[in-house]
Amino acid sequence: MARLANRRAAGRKHQGGAADWFLIGMVGAVVLASIAPNLGRTGGLLHLDVVGDIGIFLIFFLHGMGLSTDSLKHGASRWKLHLVVQISTFALFPLWWLLLNALVGRFIPHDLLLGFFYLAVLPSTVSSSVAMTAMARGNVAAAVLNATLSTLLGVVLTPLLASLVFSGAADGQAMDVGATMLKVAKMLLLPFVLGQLLRPLVGHWFQKIKPWTTKVDRAVILLLVLSSFSDSVADGLWSKHGLGLMAMTAVGVCLFLFPLLWLTKRVARAFNFPVEDEIVAVFCGSKKTLASGVPMAKLLFSGNPSMGVLVLPIMFYHQLQLFVCSVMAKRYAERDKTPVPEGKPG
User: Fold this and answer.
1) pTM (whole model) above 0.90
2) 131-154 confidence digits (pLDDT tens)
3) Most buried residue, 114, 143, 181, 216, by CB count within 10 Å?
4) Pick the CATH number of 38-333 from 3.40.50.620, 1.20.1530.20, 1.10.760.10, 2.10.109.10
5) What is the spatial distance between Cα 156 and Cα 294, in angstroms, rounded to a whole number?
């Protein structure tokens, strides 16, 4: 037990350090794009539009290699918990956006409003959902299952849901669902399936180099952020909106995270879930993925000069959910000191 505790403590320390440099990198990408947008814009000196396509393919290939679908075979009998998490992720969030849009949508810039809808239809995270559940001494097996299922569903549901609201390009034409799903199949599903097919052959080797693949994954995300913001700055992002856009985004993500945390907890208790399952419902049902969100946005909305604004909510939400859920996980973990099983099937 002591060895396991030390390993988890070391993992949390490593995760915290990685999160720190990643946050600094995102801020740096925004600053660099603001100072020298011609470096990263489409057709710019760095040709990040070409690098971005390769990076998106690589990210979803790595996701396919790293995601163990064996977890879907276990814990299937906890169907109420799984429904709560997936409905929260793909239904409650969009419904909450509709409510906020009706109340305050007229005060929010149109592109930022669409960015919040994109945030609302994203799948849950994998690594941080499971890590927070483990830290809180919750049902880790159920967290792995729900995070995996959310990722698989998100590859299809996120583009479909986004097509209901988004304009597909700067000319304002409606998103072509057929063309969108073809791009999804080519750039998201294909590399993901290839990764899954190769996993039985090289999965053991992949686990050994996973810390390095995580760095590659995050480096690609930073390049995509730089590219997105460079296009937006070149299109007049700051001259049109100024720093008020940042303040509005910060308030907006709070209006998403805190109500959904409260709501998922209420629903879990209404179903009389044990506290270990409540933790899964709260963490997996309220989280949104930056790792898939930025690459998917770059694919779905390529050519849109407002890309930087569209991904701003998920960038802010990512940092807020890590901080708030870390605090909550520590409080959950202190509820007692007795061992908690890491989830039993059924």
Assistant:
1) no
2) 899 999 999 889 988 988 999 899
3) 143
4) 1.20.1530.20
5) 16
